[in-house]
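Appendix B. One record, verbatim.
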Amino acid sequence: MAGALADTCPEYGSAEIVGQVAVPGLDESSGVAASRTRDGVLFTHADGGEPRLFAITVGGQARESVAVTGAELDDWEDIAAAPCPDKGDCLYIGDIGDNQEARSSITVYVVREPAEGDDKARVRERYTAVYPDGPHDAEALMVHPCTGRIHVVTKADDGLSTIYRFPSPEELGRDTVTLEEVAKVAIEGATAEARGVTGGDYDLDGDRVVLRTQTQLLEWEIDPTKPNAHWSEAPRSLSAASVEQGEGVAFTLDGGLVTTAEGSPMPLAVVTCDVEPSGHECVFPQSGCGCAATSAPGWLWLLGALGVARRRQSRAHWSIRDQPS
């Protein structure tokens, strides 16, 4: 399957609930990620119970239930699909929830994307981190597809969320690391539910980023020469499905969005990209910036071979050292 992905979506459609997902063990979908190896498949998880992933289709049909071996579940709040630290496609699971703001550390688990029929996924990497300024509650985890940097966005009733990031992949190991503050973002809304961030995602090329609250979907376009400047700009407000409590959001590989919510059955909604975007061609399965081949030998190859560069000849380039995302 071939599809065209672009820097932005010119025009989104309205949010539409496409399914009511009933899966044993999934009473609350806290995060969602679109598979980069299986067309039309999503991965989601609960925030409590057993450490387990659930594969579902974009239409809301249940597929595999996958036990995550080598992981613990304190409060799983979000999941991101991105290239693995070495090669291939992985899922990054954020055990980052902290309603009481009392956790001594947070953890991100990395597993390879489960294949069709898999019932187990082994933890390949376990990253433990602390905030530089004390514990925070957070429900949004994002992995930049070009740099591999893991980002966490805090949840704040007053709408002033902070974006933190992990060190670069080559700096991560078994030791606990201290997160770095990247920026603050002000989320406007009439209620605490409208202001508190519950999920987030980068698109396949790192050209767009979306945050969601229980009632809102907010998108920013990213200037690669100023990768964090957008956080101080007004976001694009998108249509969100009317649900009791919105939780997860992810970009789909065709340029749209998918969202999940609390409840069993769980309402699954999509926001389509109605105007076909122009841009480079991508061949499924696809992984990372510029739809680089999944056989790419790691992050350095991705950064050196960015298809983005071919599409952005008029934009200034940036080096690994200079890139803050």
